[in-house]
Specification:
Helix content: 55-70%
Number of helices: 21
Radius of gyration: 31 Å
């Protein structure tokens, strides 16, 4: 179906060519319907406007979350339809820069005169670069956000948990003896415990977080409150919720929620909402005091140790491993090692996206070879005339190589603009609609600024094959047909 749809425009154009024109082609290259049809520019702007409308409607819960991907699709289509205009725009300064150099000026003229073919290739490369830029910015934004979030939330010096929980989730518990032993070690000041309890249904999963420890002010509240930061949420009947919970269940500060407990249903007041990137299911956070009042279950999943200034962290870690984890039953991480482990998992998660974006760019660059090779056949009379009036093989080859590089440069600049727009949708719309996460937008300029340079270079290298074919073309047969 996609192949048939893609073939419709060229098939319609081919069918509309008068037989006389086909038998006696004009001396100049025709500008096809795809590049010059009056509807193309209008359709491009309509797609961009529809993209913005769908994104806004999704954020306001007027459309389901999967529609965010449709807004990304509309963005790509809109920019693709505007690629011919972008090439004409970027060709203006290029033509000025190359003025006085015949073969270079000829390359830019050929670029704009052959939009009926070049625009398709440039659009494919633009989309590939846009995907690369969009995913790169989104991943780096997410990574920077998680880094800032961990700086705020991961404040303990040592973290202890059953190693099995890294594989099976929060199902194994720590022995209460570990906490007592740790508090008796020299250099350990305090020990906080952490517990998760699944309280939702399969249709609406939720998690109850139970924290035992003094107020730490390490939960990044969306609306900071001195009272909440000082620990008012740990009072009986109070609770915090994370951002995904707020979006999924449409609640806010000041609302109440009901929980079923072994001792009966209780009502909790929501006193704050905090940012959380641990998962997207939704968390309710209460103190251990509130939990113990309604659950007779002292177990906990992990332990966070706070050390005294100058304490030997390696000595304490070794003591804990020797006593409770001689064969690796426990995961014992220092603060630094835990952060490293989190980002190891993060980078592994997104590794495939880097491979896919490389493949997309490689396929698009291959399109440059095919397009310019086709244009060599289409321009045989033009090439023969240039050779007849004195153009050297090197000048002809240089013209095609520069044209290929210009396609890469125009595509890279257009793709970067499209990619930044795509990154905005992925960061502020897709993440929020699907996961309930507010991600801070971060542009890795050091990664993005070299893109036009290496894309132009790769495109120019790709143009060497058709350039060689053009330089070696025999001018005699086309001249005889003139």
């Amino acid at each position: 179906a996609a192949a048939l749809a893609g073939a419709w425009l060229p098939a319609d154009e081919a069918a509309s060519i008068p037989p006389a024109e086909a038998l006696h082609p004009p001396t100049k290259n025709p500008v096809g319907k795809v590049a010059g049809a009056p509807w193309r520019r209008r359709a491009g702007f309509v797609c961009l406007a529809a993209c913005a409308g769908v994104a806004i409607a999704t954020l306001q819960n007027l459309l389901p979350p999967p529609m965010t991907f449709f807004s990304c699709f509309l963005l790509m289509i809109g920019f693709s339809l505007l690629v011919p205009d972008a090439i004409r725009f970027f060709a203006i300064p290029l033509r000025i820069l190359m003025r006085g150099k015949v073969e270079l000026s000829m390359a830019i003229d050929s670029l704009t005169r052959s939009l009926h073919r070049n625009s398709m290739t440039a659009a494919a490369l633009t989309v590939s670069i846009a995907m690369m830029v969009g995913v790169t910015v989104m991943v780096r934004s997410f990574r920077e956000t998680v880094d800032m979030w961990m700086d705020r939330t991961v404040v303990a010096d040592i973290f202890i948990a059953p190693a099995a929980n890294e594989r099976i989730g929060m199902h194994a518990f720590l022995s209460p003896e570990i906490r007592d032993y740790a508090l008796n070690l020299k250099g350990v000041a305090e020990a906080d415990t952490y517990r998760e309890v699944a309280i939702g249904s399969p249709e609406a999963p939720r998690t109850l977080i139970v924290i035992d420890g003094p107020p730490r002010d390490n939960l990044p509240l969306i609306n900071p409150s001195p009272e909440v930061s000082a620990g008012s949420w740990q009072q009986p009947g109070k609770a915090l919720i994370n951002e995904p919970y707020q979006r999924r269940f449409d609640v806010k500060e000041g609302d109440t929620l009901s929980l079923a407990t072994p001792s009966g249903e209780i009502t909790l007041e929501i006193v704050g909402v905090y940012r959380d990137y641990a998962d997207d299911q939704g968390h309710i956070t209460i103190s251990r005091q509130t939990f113990d009042a309604h659950w007779q279950d002292p177990k906990y999943h992990s332990l966070a140790l706070f050390l005294e200034p100058g304490a030997n962290i390696n000595r304490i870690t070794r003591a804990l491993r020797t006593r409770f984890s001689p064969t690796g039953e426990l995961s014992i991480y220092s603060n630094r090692r835990l952060r490293e482990r989190v980002f190891e998992i993060f980078d592994q998660t997104f590794a495939v996206t880097y491979a896919l974006r490389t493949v997309a760019v490689a396929v698009a660059v291959a399109g440059i070879v095919l397009t310019l090779t086709t244009l060599v056949r289409e321009r045989l009379r033009e090439l023969a005339t240039l050779r007849a009036i004195g153009a050297s093989r090197l000048q002809v080859a240089t013209s095609y190589t520069v044209e290929a590089g210009a396609i890469g440069l125009c595509s890279a600049l257009t793709g970067m603009l499209c990619g930044l727009c795509l990154a905005i949708i992925l960061t502020y719309v897709v993440n929020l609609a699907f996961f309930g996460w507010t991600v801070h937008f971060f542009i890795p300029w050091l990664e993005l600024l070299p893109i036009p340079l290496w894309v132009t270079a790769i495109a120019a290298v790709a143009g060497l094959i058709p350039a060689r074919l053009a330089a070696q073309a025999d001018p005699a047969p086309p001249l005889r047909d003139l």
